[in-house]
């Protein structure tokens, strides 16, 4: 698959995973998952993802865990949390950003945004090694 194709596919996978993160979060708290409610939860992280995707140059190296995956992950979390605080989302009992949410968001988005890239790279390397063994045997 070409880098350009992987670039588009990586963008789609990332966006789906960020929306899935928001969906899981809303569901785990028993909140409604209407399109508007889901958008309200997801858009801060999608904005962060977009900044991370562009600033990391992800379209040119979409499967790299470093720097692509890590930059996309860190900016998705940082910008997403900053927008949530700025818009008053997530205020729990006067706490604008519960540390438990910061920890969960950081871990889950890290596993999602870096993890899938690591898995694909591992599969690609394994397949290449098997092809190499077949040609030398």
Number of domains: 1
| Shape category | elongated
* Overall helicity: over 70%
Rg for CA atoms: 17 Å
How would you state the average pLDDT, rounded? Answer: 91
* Unreliable stretches: none
The CA-CA distance between the termini, in Å, is 26 Å
Major pleated sheet: none
Protein name: DUF3054 domain-containing protein
Organism: Curtobacterium luteum
Keywords: Membrane, Transmembrane, Transmembrane helix
Provide a descriptive summary of the structure in words.
It is built from four helices and no strands. The two termini are 26 Å apart. The radius of gyration is 17 Å and the shape is elongated. Helix 3 runs antiparallel to helix 4 (99-136). It has one domain (3-136). The protein has helices spanning 3-28, 35-56, 65-86, 99-136. By secondary structure, the chain is an all-alpha fold. It is 79% helix and 0% strand.
How would the blueprint of this fold be written?
Elements: H1 3-28, H2 35-56, H3 65-86, H4 99-136
Helix pairs in contact: 1-2, 1-4, 2-3, 3-4
């Amino acid at each position: 698959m070409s880098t350009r194709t992987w670039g588009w596919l990586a963008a789609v996978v990332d966006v789906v995973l960020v929306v899935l993160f928001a969906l899981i979060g809303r569901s785990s708290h028993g909140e409604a998952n209407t399109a508007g409610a889901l958008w309200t939860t997801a858009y801060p992280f999608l904005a962060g993802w977009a900044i991370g995707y562009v600033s990391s140059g992800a379209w040119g190296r979409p499967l790299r865990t470093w720097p692509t995956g890590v930059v996309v992950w860190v900016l998705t979390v940082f910008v997403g949390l900053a927008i949530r605080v700025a818009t008053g989302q997530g205020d729990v009992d006067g706490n604008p950003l519960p540390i438990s949410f910061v920890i969960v968001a950081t871990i889950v988005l890290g596993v999602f945004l870096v993890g899938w890239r690591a898995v694909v790279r591992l599969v690609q390397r394994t397949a290449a090694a098997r092809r190499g063994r077949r040609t030398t045997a």
